[in-house]
Amino acid sequence: MATKLQRRTASLRKLHLLQTLNKPKSVKRSCSIINVLLHFYKLKVKLEEIQREYQNLLKNMRIPQEVKVEKINGEQFVLKVACNKGGDKLVSILEVFDELGLNVVQARVSCRHFFSMEAIIGVGQDQKTSDMKDITDAVLKAIDEKQSGEQEMLVT
């Protein structure tokens, strides 16, 4: 007898909770459940729409390309790169380091929303340059070549 009363009380509490969630015009249990399910479905559709808008915003977002080179000590530099993602930018930058005779001591690369790289580069034995301006120009040139190549591929 007590369990029957407890179940009825719990059922009434749940019904009251459903009624407070959706403020139905009808007190029927089935109408309340349907209204709550409809409310959850509408929330799910709104969430999916917001996620689509966010993805479109990220696609259309243009990051200004930025290359900074700072000298740590006589033979090491810190390179910071930020630009739009896509293509083989990392490979191009590493090829530039190889051409200039620079060695990567430590690097951190991210391509989540845009391409970013922070690296410590050391001057190798067969160095061709240790000028910050030359390094900056070479990295910018490598990034620009990849971006122009991607745009040509998209056009054709």
Describe the structure.
Keywords: DNA-binding, Nucleus. By secondary structure, the protein is α+β, with helices and mostly antiparallel strands. It has 2 domains: 2-60; 66-155, Alpha-Beta Plaits (2-Layer Sandwich), CATH 3.30.70.260. Helices cover 57% and strands 22% of the residues. The chain contains 4 helices and 4 strands. The chain has a 4-stranded antiparallel β-sheet with strand order 1-2-4-3, with helices on one face. A hairpin with a 2-residue loop joins β1 and β2. α1 crosses α2 (29-60) and α3 (89-100) runs antiparallel to α4. The longest helix is centred in the N-terminal third of the chain and has 32 residues, at 29-60. The radius of gyration is 30 Å and the shape is rod-shaped.
In short:
By secondary structure, this protein is of the alpha+beta class.
* Uncertain stretches of 5 or more adjacent residues: 150-156
Please tell me what the overall shape is.
rod-shaped
CATH architecture designation of the largest domain: 2-Layer Sandwich
Mean residue pLDDT: 79
Secondary-structure element pattern, one letter each: HHEEHEEH
Strand order in space, largest sheet: 1-2-4-3
Helix content: 55-70%
Cα(first) to Cα(last) distance is: 79 Å
Please work out how many helical segments DSSP would assign: 4
Structural class: alpha+beta
CATH class of the largest domain: Alpha Beta
What does the largest sheet look like?
A: 4 strands, antiparallel
- Please indicate the percent range of residues in DSSP E strands (runs of 2 or more): 15-25%
CATH superfamily of the largest domain: ACT domain
Kindly provide the radius of gyration, computed on alpha-carbon positions and rounded to a whole number of angstroms. Answer: 30 Å
Counted beta strands = 4
Q: At the third CATH level, what is the topology name of the largest domain?
A: Alpha-Beta Plaits
Number of structural domains: 2
